[in-house]
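Bumping with the actual sequence this time:
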Amino acid sequence: MKNRLKVLRAERDWSQQDLADRLGVSRQSVNAIETGKYDPSLPLAFTIAETFAMSIEEIFERG
């Protein structure tokens, strides 16, 4: 699954650890999602969307 997480995080000048802290996950989880090695659970995807004030579809796309 492709996503815009790295770009959105960079636009806010957040490190992977900053985002991980906001999401309540590990930095390694953020890295794995950004690189497409891990697809987040639906609850985590909703939390990510809420954190960026965007819809899930604006952040993630099948690819």
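The tokens above came from a reply further down the thread. The radius of gyration is 10 Å.
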